[in-house]
Amino acid sequence: MSDLADFTLTEAVTAVRERKVSSLELLNACFANIERANQQINATTWLNYESARKSARKADQATSNGAKLGPLHGVPMAHKDMFYRSGKPCTCGSRIRRDFVPEVTATVLARMDAAGAYGFGGLNMTEFAGSETGHNREFGDCRNPWNPTYISGGSSSGSGAAVAARMTYAALGSDTAGSIRLPASACGVTGIKPTQTRVSRAGVMPLSFSADVIGPLARTARDCARILSVIAGYDPLDPTSSTEEVPNYEAALDGNVRGLKIGVPTKHFFDHADQPVALAIDEAIRVLEKQGVMVQRIVLPMIDAILAYGGILSRVEAAAIHAEWMRKRPQDYPQDILDWLYASYAIPAPYYVEALSRRGPILREFVKEVFGSVDVLATPTMRTCVPTLIQTDIEKSDASVASVSTSTAMDSNTRFFSYLGLPSINVNCGFNPDGLPVGLSLTSRPFAEVEALKLADAYQQETDWHKHRPPILA
Questions:
Q1: What are the two backbone dihedrals, phi and then psi, of residue 293, each rounded to the nearest 5 degrees?
Q2: Fold of 4-473
Q3: For the packed helices 303-321 and 335-344, what is the interaxial angle rounded to 10 degrees?
Q4: How far apart are CA 145 and CA 82, in angstroms?
C-alpha cells in the first residue's frame, strides 16, 4: 500500500497493534495529505501537529511496552470543530466563537481517548451547524475532494471532506437534519446517525435539543461500528442519554444478511429524483438482493406530518439556543442563518408543543406499521446529484431563490428520519456522470443500528465504491 492514509480505521489499528507501522507514521501520512489537498478543499479550521506527535509517540511506546491496547489505539483523528476539549480551541465554525476555549471535554472525545485514539485538529463546518452545504463565511467554504467546485455537504462538511481526502482515518460529526449523512453522501464516505439519545451530547455544541445526534464518518461500515461501540452508552453528564444496552456492533458484521427485509418507499423519497441517483440506488438494492435480502415496496405513513413537525422542532429549539446572541450580536451571523433564525421566532408556541407531544405517538405508529413488515428502509440520501457551491450560495442575490430550493431538496430525505430519531447510515453506491458520489441510506428501527450496519457492511464486501480515491489525491 503506497499511502498509509489509505488504511481504513480498523486496518490502521491492526497495523499499529502488530507493529507493522507506527502511530507516528499514520499521523505523518494524514498530514502529508493535508499538505497535498487542504489548500483546495479547506477542510480544517485548526491543526496542532506538535501536540499530536507527542500523543503518537506515547501510543508507540505503549505498543512497545506490551500495554493493554484499546480498540482505537494509535489512530490519529480530527473532528468537526464543535466537540469541546478542555484548553483547546473550539470555533463551532463561527465568528462568535472564533476565540472560544472550553473548560470541559466532550464525553465522546474522552471515550475515544480512553480507547487509544488522539486528536490533531478541528474540521471545518457550516457556521453553528446551520446549513446543509458546507458554505462558511468566517473560515471559507469547505469543498468537495471529488471536484472542489462542488459542495461537500453540511453541516459536518470538513468531516466528510477530510475522511474522503485521507486527511483523517475517521471524524466525529453531528446530525440534526442530515448533517452526518449529507456530507457522507456528497463526499463518498460512510457515516452513521445513531438512534437519538444513543450517544452522549455532553460537551458538544447544541443546535436542537430534540434532534441532535453524534456519530462517526469513516471509510467503511466496520470503521463506524467500532467507533460507535466506543462512544455509545449512557452518560451521567447527559441525563437524556439512553440506558439501552450497547451491543458489540462490529462483532455482528458477519456478512450474512440473508433473510433480512428491505423496504423501498413508494412516495416522497424518490419524488423528482435525478436519474443517476435513482439508477445507482436501484443497482445497490439489486446487489443486496443477490446476497439474499428480500425487497418490497412500502407505503410510509404520515409523511407530511413528520416533515412538518420535524422542521418546527429544530427551528424553534435553535432559535431558543441562539436567542441571547441574536439579541446582542446579530451582525456576527451570516445572512442565511440570520434569516432562518428570525423566521423561527415567528413560529407559535402551540405549534412547537404539538410537534413535541406528537413525536412519541407518531414514532410508535410508524415503527408498528413499517418495521412490523421490514427490517430496514433503503432510500437515496439525497434525491439530487451533488450541487455546486454556486448553485447553493444563498447569499448571492442572483441565485438565492434557486439556492434555497436546492438546499431544501438536499435534506428532504434525511430530515424525515431525524424527527423520528431513527438510526440511519449512508454508504457510497456509485458516481454520477460528473464524477460526484451517490449515497444510499439504510434506516432501521430505534436502537437497531446493527441491522443497518450489517447491510452496509455486506454491501461494501460486494462492491468497491468506498475504496475509490478522489482525484485531488492523484
A1: -80, 140
A2: Amidase signature (AS) enzymes (3.90.1300)
A3: 110
A4: 22
Peptide bond into 94 cis (omega under 30): no
- State the amino acid at position 4 in one-letter form: L
Where is pLDDT greater, at 407 or 429? Answer: 429
- Catalytic residues, by residue number, are 80, 155, 179
The residue extents of the domains of the chain are 4-473
User: Roughly how many angstroms between the first and final C-alpha of the chain, as a whole number?
Assistant: 15
pTM score: 0.97
- Check if the beta carbon of residue 44 is closer than 8 Å to that of residue 121: yes
Each residue's pLDDT tens digit, 328-357: 999 999 988 999 999 999 999 999 999 999
Nearest-5° Cα angle at 118, 240 to 469:
100
Measured torsion, CA atoms of residues 368, 373, 374, 377, in degrees rounded to the nearest 10: -60
H or E element, residue 174: strand 170-175
Of 188, 236, 265, nearest in space to 427 by CA: 188
- Phi and psi angles of residue 400, each rounded to the nearest 5 degrees, phi first: -65, -40
Report how far residue 1's alpha carbon sits from residue 23's, in angstroms, rounded to the nearest whole number.
16
Task: State the virtual CA torsion across 374, 378, 383, 384 in degrees, nearest 10.
Answer: 180
Buried b (16+ CB within 10 A) or exposed e, 298-336: bebebeeebeebbbbbbbbbbbebbeebbeeeeebbbeb
C-alpha distances in Å from residue 263, one per residue of 290, 295, 375: 16, 6, 7
- What are the start-end ranges of the E strands in 219-323? 261-265, 294-298
Our measurement of the distance from residue 255's CA atom to the centroid of its chain's CA atoms, rounded to an integer in Å, reads 23
What digits encode the pLDDT tens for the residues 198-217? 999 999 999 999 999 999 99
Contact 162, 152 (CB under 8 A): no
Quick one: pLDDT at residue 164?
98
Number of C-beta neighbours around residue 284 at 10 A: 24
